[in-house]
Write the structure tokens for this entry.
Amino acid sequence: MNDLIFRPIMPVANIFLVIMLVIVLINRKHVINRVLIIALLFIINERPMLKNRIDITYSLDLDVAFVIDTTVSMNAIDTPSGMRLDEAKAICKKIMDALPGSQFEVITYDNAALMKYPFTNDNAAVENAIDNLRIVNPFYAKGSALTMPIEFLHMSLSSREERSEYHKKKRENIVFLIGDGELDNEEKLNTDFNEYTELAKKIDNGAIIGVGTKEGGKIKLLDENKNPIFMGGDTKTRNWLAASSVRGGTKGLLGNGYGQYKKIVNDEGYLYESTKTKELAISKYGEENLKELASKLNLDYFNSTENKLDAKLEKIKENAINNDDDKQKKDQDIYYYFSIPLLILVIYELYYYRRIAN
């Protein structure tokens, strides 16, 4: 329900209305009609408005970049949504619902960073891209570093700045990086986060959101039908890929039953830490890495379970309103509804005076 607010047209006029009210009460002639006229004039002068929810205009000035971790560890099951990647997808959709009309892009990173979808206001296309996100094939996984998305982010945000300058209208750049913070590439364990300092200058708001727990979770690679979870498409498509891989001489690489996966997963489809001991891999998210990244980008950090996203989105929406004029455009005037009874009372007052004169 919208709130009732007031934006007085001429505050000083209320003094004259009070004087008029005193005169009417002293005169005691036609009191009810005249008091009502003064009351309606007071209400109209106060300019009552219905404060609308901020949900459309502000979003026209927002460019929202989703940077999503798609490494193997994102299939660990230790979030409210189950797998970490599913949690990341749910977060993205919640953000999209909260910022309607904004332009969104999707960047992923695992072995390398990849632009899945450039900035667009086609929400259906972005949601489809997010729905189809999968972890990297574990047989090709080489690990990742949090600096991988820099180039894509820097280029895309730079192009948005140029666009804003061309159209002479500033658009806010919002970045949400969602991942588990695990740095599993031995060559990049000592990631230099200073590479992000230049990028930070181009980011207006956003957050680093961690998915996962310190206790960690088992990594699921196969579904109940022994099909690789990281393969997109329906069953028919996966079977076609499996058959193609067999014809190509790489039996099992893309999902022919257990195929090669039986060497690295147990009967339930969970990844082994060691194929010799058959000990299951437990992935624990790198909170300190994400916190350090957030400090370098001047962004807030929180875990997805902390329920801080709603407050962050509300702050982004409020900050997107540039001035009071913009706020007023979003509020609905209702003072003119009071002009109708005012007109009727004034006509009656004129009729009253005419009758006395005659």
The radius of gyration is 31 Å.
